[in-house]
Design goal:
Number of domains: 6
Number of helices: 35
Strand content: 15-25%
Mean pLDDT: 88
CATH architecture of the largest domain: 3-Layer(aba) Sandwich
Oligomer: single chain
Strand order of the largest sheet: 13-14-12-15-16-11-17
Helix content: 40-55%
Radius of gyration: 35 Å
Structural class: alpha/beta
CATH superfamily of the largest domain: Tandem AAA-ATPase domain
CATH topology of the largest domain: Rossmann fold
Low-confidence stretches: none
CATH class of the largest domain: Alpha Beta
Length: about 950
């Protein structure tokens, strides 16, 4: 320990946040320090004081307590105090600064400053910082950002669509996959990419009110996106102020009815600046040249001011071509401005579609088709090479040629870039459905309430009135009969379900009913009377409560056997580990039925689905069952045409079924008519198949993307990195088994607020399949905000930015030293330009010997780091102090070496910008001449992005991020 003198400046090794301390008292073996920045006083034993003398070298800039600063040219000691001499930074005059007048608030965050003042970090902290920089660089350079981290199965067609649309500037597309193929997931992946890459920051999702919690859960659970639900009550809170409620959050879910029914809310929504607007159930937007619905008008107003627009609908083009045109009109009004011209243009693509069918079938092209391609070649230079081998005898050569031609044809096609539609027929991976109808007798006790309900609504029954007949327990309770005898004691569905569940104890049963009250009563009946382990799941529960119920149901060993869901309580959840679905009541609307079945019947379901449908004979439930089963075949398969047929028959069907007694004569005409309509519509759909649209929607790169993500999943680098972070920062970890880990904060964490970690802790898994089967488990990936938060936390802090290590090596003279420096090349480009794609923050490692030679290329980091041994902080400080002058000189000389590498990195980044963006720009410019669907705004944005990126990259900065002193020992 150096000798202390009054007025000297020291810094506390253990409490560096106190700032600079001043020696104010020396008595015997004790020294007292005042820390003026905080007003604290500390007393230490001289021989063991955790203090480091603050001193500066020639070339350092030192700030005085009065705010002026000097650049040190000489440092002299007088009576134990340092006096620094150098030019004033503002006036240039030679000035003296005694150490007692150094700024108290001086923060030593430069790596070399902390090293020379004894603020030395552990070797494993330094390693964590270096690894963090390396992984951040690799992540930001990846083209799978927003895709690999989604908590979804790796389904090729979804990945293709998400990547194709998500990586566009301001995507404006129509997602119209059939039910169960994952439109919501595709939209979520697109949103996820747009947000993570900076293409978007403000997103508005518009949808029917009944779907808002499904979307809220999907966005949070699958993509870690925290949306806020807006309704009239929330908006009204801002009515007394000048603040626009739609500008108070970045990510908003809002019922379409809110802005369609209230002009004030629409005006507020339009006044906000949206990067991306998403509209679910877009087929409800009614439009014709003569009449525009309020919903369509509201979306049209937003479509005119937002940058990106996603429309979601499962309703195919063939079920309403004019409505289909109206949706395309929202995406690009300049392109789709006249319906008649659109129809004529579509007809003109028929020959192109026929040509595509031949290419896909691998049949040889005839002379006429070759001539047609030759004509296209004149218009499109992209086809030049491919045409030469289109009929080649070499199978691989022929396939490659045809794939290239098909890509060009898709780009030429009218809706090729704005429309995606996959069908179950073209996508593999769906289970079979097995139907098990259960005939039951309608209880006499229900009849008085049923008659009362029919009499009450007989004059003009609507869908809601008929739907209540399909839930007799609701009517029974509505008239107060439940007070005399609970409905579940007389309803045969309860007894049937109890016996069924007890007979198949090894099976999980998902039960769905219309009302939350029914679900709650059923669960109590099964549990208390029959001793069956069951849980409820409904919209009145919090997300945490739903998670617990879902986790209990998912547990294969100790979980409950039955989960009873209300109608909307089951939405947005993954219950694919179960294969038994019980519809306690039958929904009237075919779309609602498909939504229920879709809880289990989804891609990735490993077992066939068993549909158990209890219904009452001679009642509306039997008639509806027969209409759905025999009329539109809705139980055996999906029926895209079903809802259209239902809407055609709805008025007459409701009137006919709204009675007490039913027989086949009542429903037979409707069944027959429905069969005929469905057949006609299916025939129209088959005739209207668009092979180019199917190819564009399914894509050819989905499998490759899935394989690339699977490789990332299998790589253990993320696990090793996060365990290193947890250990360094003091996060408690408990192995929960089944590849799950419980994280909990501790009182001794390095940072009080660890990214995403709440006081209650959280359960995580790095395994995709585990996270997919457990809603209560967070899937940790490189995309996860916890991982991204760790990158930012480490980069913004000084943790691990210096270290001292020993190198046991008898082949080198003892005392030989090396200085390892980590520089970072970084651009200040805004995130919206996606700088990480071309120049992510790039770590540059140098390893200098005492002569200033850079050995980094010869001595790899990983092997070298493993040889190093830690050294105690006190000894490390003494070593750093002894070598301070030599190190300072090496650090100064290292800047020139790092600067050379920075220029190489900049050149490579600009070369990549030129290659990728210029190629894409040239392609789109050529295609725009053939396909008006290539929007001018895309080309302009691409040109601006290229110019701005080159400008920012050329101005990239170089910063010393970490330094490590390595000394050879024997």
């Amino acid at each position: 320990m150096s000798n202390f003198a009054l007025g000297q400046r020291w810094i506390s090794d253990s409490e560096s946040d106190l700032g600079l301390g001043t020696v104010v008292g020396i008595e015997g073996r004790r020294v007292s320090l005042l820390f003026p920045a905080t007003g604290e006083t500390r007393e230490y034993v001289i021989d063991s004081a955790p203090l480091t003398r603050v001193s500066f070298n020639v070339g350092d800039t030192v700030e005085s307590a009065d705010g002026w600063s000097i650049t040190v040219e000489s440092a002299d000691e007088t009576d134990g105090l340092m006096i620094y001499t150098g030019p004033d930074s503002e006036t240039g005059e030679l000035t003296h600064l005694i150490e007692t007048r150094i700024n108290h608030h001086l923060k030593l965050n430069k790596p070399q400053d902390r090293l020379f003042t004894g603020q030395i970090d552990r070797n494993d902290w330094y390693d964590l910082r270096y690894q963090s920089r390396q992984y951040q660089y690799k992540y930001q350079s990846s083209d799978l950002i927003g895709l690999s981290g989604a908590r979804t199965a790796l389904i090729p067609h979804q990945l293709h669509i998400a990547k194709e649309a998500g990586q566009r500037v301001a995507p404006r597309v129509l997602l119209s996959d059939e039910v169960g193929l994952g439109k919501t997931i595709e939209a979520g992946m697109i949103i996820h990419q747009q947000l993570l890459t900076g293409r978007s920051s403000r997103v508005l999702i518009l949808l029917p009110e009944s779907l808002q919690y499904q979307w809220l859960v999907e966005m949070l659970r699958r993509f870690n996106l925290k949306f806020s639900i807006f309704d009239e009550e929330r908006c009204a809170e801002y009515d007394g102020s000048d603040e626009n409620p739609f500008e108070t959050e970045q990510l908003i879910i809002c019922p379409l009815s809110l802005i369609a029914d209230k002009e004030k809310r629409l005006n507020q929504a339009c006044a906000a600046n949206w990067d991306l607007v998403v509209v679910d159930e877009a087929h409800h937007l009614k439009w014709s040249p003569e009449q525009v619905s309020p919903q369509y008008a509201a979306v049209e107003a937003l479509a005119g001011i937002c940058k990106g627009l996603l429309l979601l609908t499962a309703t195919p083009d063939q079920l309403g071509h004019e409505s289909h045109f109206a949706r395309l009109r929202l995406l690009d009004r300049d392109r789709f401005y006249d319906y008649e011209k659109f129809v004529a243009e579509e007809a003109g693509y028929q020959s192109t579609a026929e040509l595509a069918k031949t290419l896909v079938s691998d049949e040889s092209l005839n002379d006429q088709q070759v001539a047609e391609l030759a004509q296209l070649q004149k218009e499109d230079s992209l086809l030049n090479d491919a045409l030469l081998t289109v009929n080649s005898n070499d199978a691989d050569e022929r396939k490659a040629s045809r794939d290239n031609i098909l890509k060009a044809l898709i780009d030429r096609h009218g809706t090729g870039r704005v429309l995606f539609r996959n069908t179950r027929a073209s996508v593999k991976g769906f289970p079979k459905r097995e139907l098990y109808p259960v005939e039951l007798t309608y209880p006499e006790e229900f009849m008085p309430a049923t008659r009362w309900w029919i009499d009450k609504h007989q004059e003009a029954p609507n869908q809601q009135d008929l739907a209540k007949l399909l839930t007799p327990e609701f009517i029974y309770e509505a008239v107060g009969s439940n007070d005399e005898q609970p409905w579940w004691l007389i309803d045969p569905r309860v007894d049937w379900l109890s016996e069924k569940v007890k007979a198949e104890k090894d099976q999980k049963f998902l039960v769905i009913c219309a009302q939350a009250s029914t679900a709650l009563t059923m669960e109590k009946a099964l549990r208390t009377l029959q001793g069956i382990n069951s849980a409820v799941f409904h919209e009145g529960m919090t997300i945490v409560e739903r998670d617990r119920a879902a986790a209990w149901f998912a547990d294969q060993d100790e979980g409950c056997q039955v989960l009873i869901c209300s109608e909307i309580g089951s939405e947005g959840r993954n219950f694919q580990f179960a294969s038994n679905l019980v519809l306690f009541d039958i929904p009237l609307n075919p779309d609602l039925l498909e939504q229920r079945i879709g809880r289990l019947d989804r891609i990735g379901q490993l077992n066939d689905i068993k549909l158990h449908i209890p219904y009452f004979t001679g009642t509306a439930s039997e008639s509806i069952f027969k209409w759905l089963d025999h009329g539109i075949n809705a139980f055996a398969d999906t029926c895209p045409a079903g809802v259209t047929v239902f809407e055609q028959q709805a008025d007459e069907l409701i009137q006919a079924l709204f009675q007490i007694d039913h027989d086949d004569a009542v429903i037979a005409p409707f069944v027959s008519q429905a069969k005929e309509h469905v057949a006609d519509l299916n025939k129209q759909m088959e005739q209207g198949r668009d092979i180019l649209l199917e190819l564009n929607s399914k894509g050819t790169d989905g499998e490759a993307i899935a394989e690339a993500i699977a490789e990332i999943d299998d790589d253990t680098s993320l696990i090793a990195y996060m365990f290193q972070v947890f250990d360094v920062y003091g996060v408690q970890q408990e192995d929960k088994g089944e590849q799950c880990l419980i994280l909990k904060p501790t009182e001794h964490m390095l940072e009080p607020h660890f990214p995403e970690l709440t006081d209650e802790g959280m359960t995580i898994s790095f395994e995709r399949d585990t996270a997919l089967s457990r809603d209560d488990v967070r899937f940790i990936s490189w995309d996860h905000p916890m991982v991204q938060g760790c990158f930012e936390m480490i980069a913004a802090s000084d943790v691990g930015n210096n270290a001292v290590s020993l190198l046991p090596n008898k082949a080198l003279p003892e005392g030989t030293f090396f200085v390892e420096l980590i520089y970072v090349v970084e651009t200040s480009a805004p995130k919206s330009l996606q700088p990480g794609r071309f120049l992510a923050p790039t770590p540059v490692r140098l390893l200098l010997d005492k002569a200033g030679n850079n050995l980094a290329a010869k001595v790899a980091y990983e092997g070298f780091n493993k040889q190093l041994k830690p050294v105690g902080k006190h000894i490390a400080s003494n070593i750093a102090t002894a070598l301070q002058t030599d190190m300072a000189n090496l650090i100064a000389s290292s800047e020139a070496i790092a600067e050379q590498q920075k220029q190489q990195i900049i050149e490579q980044a600009i070369e990549k910008i030129e290659l990728e963006l210029s190629t894409e720009l040239a392609r789109l410019q050529a295609l725009q001449k053939l396909n008006p669907n290539i929007r001018a705004v895309e080309l302009e944005a691409l040109e601006n992005q290229k110019a701005d990126l080159i400008n920012y990259v050329n101005q990239a900065g170089l910063q010393l991020d970490a330094v490590r002193l390595i000394v050879v020992s024997h």
